[in-house]
Amino acid sequence: MLDSIAGARRRVWLETYIFADDEIGRRFAEALTERARAGLDVRLHIDAAGSALCFSSRLEHYLLTQGVQLRWFHRWRWRQPLRYNRRNHRKLLVVDDSDAYLGGFNIHRENSRSVYGEQRWRDAHVRCDGALAVQAARLFDAFWRGNRRWVLPRTAGTATVLMPNHTRLCRQQLRCAYAAMADSAESLMWLTTPYFVPDHRTQEALITAARRGRDVRVLVPRKGDVRLARWAARAAYAKLLRAGVRIFEYLPRVLHAKTAVVDEAYAVLGTANLDYRSFFLNYELNFITREPGLCRQLVEQFEKDLEESEEICADRWATRPWTDHLTETVGWLARRWL
């Protein structure tokens, strides 16, 4: 990503949920300001809640004085308190019309091996070029201008699409897409998500697929950065396990990837978690593809992750202590706000 920014000739557009004033954030700030000083159109769209505790007024001043166009998404306003609950969770970098990067990577040290070491977050990001990069630029620009439900026109026969979750025709597009994937699965549906708080319709879609004999697996983190979200996720385990859905908890480090593979024939990689906030509240962007190489790569990565995971067994789960039931209830009651 930094190399692409350094090679930009016309514009660099970046939107992110977290932009931290740390070693990685400062590297990106230097790269962005260097291009801005060179006369390029450099835009930075940061979520006000996601970066509230890690950004700094010093870094903001530096970016603005060096020519970067900086915009905050949904800063707190006393006259509109409820809008603060709707966040821009997208992580998208567009360089000229040649490169676009999309996925789970935020701009902070936790996503860097060189800075954070082997305990860096296990995440997933994808680079696209050509027509997809042009589409990504159009999506960024529409959102920047406040047209948050603009969607790309559909093209028949396209192997890969960029899908936001809110459009003029459907405010729950990603939720509908996951339900359709579960319904169409012929052999397997493997999901990786850091925050697993599925609504009832999504739960029923996974249960129905498992009862039809499909290999439905969900990979979630054992270690997480939001304890309440982990409690909420575990509240859904029992019902899914009874239906034959297999659940695995990833052990070595924080799992932050958001991917899905169906029948090794099509796949999803993006910014959306399988939870209420991503499906109903936040603005998200996912990369959905039938490209065989990427589908195989995600299958192989899922299998590799399973080697470092522990499967949750239904019998043992049924005998967990009453304190776990209590924390799960607390998490589930808070599920719409996580």
Automatic annotation (TrEMBL):
InterPro entries: PLD-like_dom, PLipase_D/transphosphatidylase. It holds the Pfam family PLDc_2. One of its GO terms (molecular function) is cardiolipin synthase activity. One of its GO terms (biological process) is cardiolipin biosynthetic process. One of its GO terms (cellular component) is membrane. Residues 84-111, 251-278 form the PLD phosphodiesterase domain. Coiled coil: none annotated. CDD domains: PLDc_CLS_1, PLDc_ybhO_like_2. This is Cardiolipin synthase B. It comes from Candidatus Tenderia electrophaga.
